[in-house]
Fold:
Amino acid sequence: MPPELGLVTAVLAVSTGAILVRWSDAPSSVAAFYRVLFTTLPLLPVAAWRYREDFARIDRRDLGFATLSGVALAIHFASWFESLEWTSVAASVTLVQAQPVFVALGAWLLLRERVTRRIAVGIGIAVGGIAVMSLGDFLGGVLVGPAPLYGNALALIGAVTAAGYVLAGRSLRQRLALVPYVVVVYGVCTVSLFALVLAQDNPLIGYPPREWAVFLGLAIGPGLFGHTVINWALGYLESSVVSVSLLGEPVGATILALALLGEVPTRFTVLGGVIVLSGIYLTTTGSR
Structure:
């Protein structure tokens, strides 16, 4: 399959994530837990059969950073899934996709990476778009969702923690093979989400077949055909091309929400989303 076609397939697959979460009647933490669990389970036999020596070479320091990365990924999924209960699909997906902005900020603060003028302008534009999206609907009195400001804040937490996951992976992937790294991080993420489900006293069983189909859909669609194919495409395409193409996820999710959920975004959500995506584009291409 040509990598360009694979990338288009991946963007379409990840665009379904928010819709599947909305279709689920299970608690958001349960849906997040099963998404990561069902994505991780098929990797375990491969990891045990082909990468046993790679696991043995992981030192304590790298294991600690991988654990932090897994916890950050768990917070990302939990906060983003919950945000979809309170705000529109368009706002939630656009805000959580702003993680390149926070990656750039984190790389500057923590890794001392240089911030170019293009990146700085992109960050400023994205922040302005976030303000328009979050405050415009509230001040205009036209809201989509029971508590849009709360939902938008949760989506931003998801973006920040996703950035932490990316920054940790940027360092660890230089020393660890892909499968061992992913299995450790996903394993920690699964355990963290399991603890959250127990803390919230949410049931793990007793759901109708429709819910299990949604859980599997989250793992197969956005997980297998989405992020897995994206990682495969990175072996053939420039990272800047892949990163920019992911800006299609908010657009795709918004169109699907309109067609399948009847959710019409407000003018401030559309305007703010365009501004945010423009800022993300500048930030991503500026750090090529």
User: Anything to note?
Assistant: The chain is about 80% helix and 0% strand.
